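idk why but the lab printer keeps eating my pages so im just putting this in chat instead. protein + glutamic acid:
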Amino acid sequence: MSTSRREILPRARRVVVKIGTRLLCNKKGHLNLKRMENIVNDLAYLWQEDRELVLVSSGAIGAGMGRLGLTEVPQTLPEKQAAAAVGQGILMHLYESFFSPQGILVAQVLLTRDDIKIRERYLNARHTFQTLLRHRVIPIVNENDTIAVEEIRFGDNDTLAALVACLINADLLVFLTDLEGFYTADPHKDESGELIPEIAEITPEIENLAGGKGSAFATGGMETKIQAAKIAMGAGIPLVIGSGMHARVLARILAGEEVGTFFVPRADRLQARKRWIAFGSSVQGRVHVDLGAANALIKKGKSLLSRGITKVEASFEAGAVVSVINPGGKEIARGISNYSSEALNLIKGRGTWEIKAILGYKDYDEVIHRDNLTVITGCGATSKN
Ligand code: GLU
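predcted complex ->
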């Protein structure tokens, strides 16, 4: 039943599911409530299995168009924005009414590109998602279409969903669409089109197959899905494109069944990030640690705590990649610091329990979490850490 590469899917705990406009709305902008309810039931099942879920839902412009009585897809940006403003409320109201009887809380999260691009906003958004997930809430995400002008737009929810998956470090990304998966030719137009069950690499041929648009008011067709697949695969996040027309499709995907198209992640997620930390990032500061902390990092695979820090060099923001230096002056690790240099200077050498009293806040217990730390050995980074 399950193919070997899909064995990772049942273990996926944090899952981002994206639902396209074509699934939710017909051409006149009428929402398909039955389908919406089916998808909500499918999500509720995964939620009951204790998975953490984020839903990226399109359909705001479509739904708004229907409610405004527009017969044609709005062409100008202000018209689209107005339709989105009307439709987003309708969408949220419906999701609320479907999730609520299942005892599931939902939250609206509207993002623009700057929320991912600007480090401070990126970290804020990440904190918000983490907190919502901790409360077992399902965040429902869309682009903030109402204020998003060209320069700050994602433009399509496929890209948005892939970036959200990276932002929250998801274990799996699923695109639900009105097709069974990714085809060799658009099955709406060409009967010879065949479903591709697995894609391990986005080749120029795959990109060529993906040409064309989805529907009148959905922004993305397969083209944007393939671009999004590149982002996810590169970040080590598996992606499945499946059909949202069938009940229980999510449960089946998460069971590792061979439905839809599975995009094989290029590297193990953790290792991909660790490699980025070790080789792909630019080091913005140096954190000196005492012998106890150095040993805890290298020999025991622990996180770096404030107590073991003796000195901080350079000025950096929270989220910066820093070098960890042992008492002998040697770089032993690199990692993402949860605190700015300014904050570290105040909390170095102090216990974790003191952080809140000193800073007035404590976002994290660890200064560098183990998952965000790569030990550097004599000849480079080791993945066995
Ligand atoms: N954000 C748009 C909406 O909710 C959809 C974008 C897309 O279809 O990719 O209407």
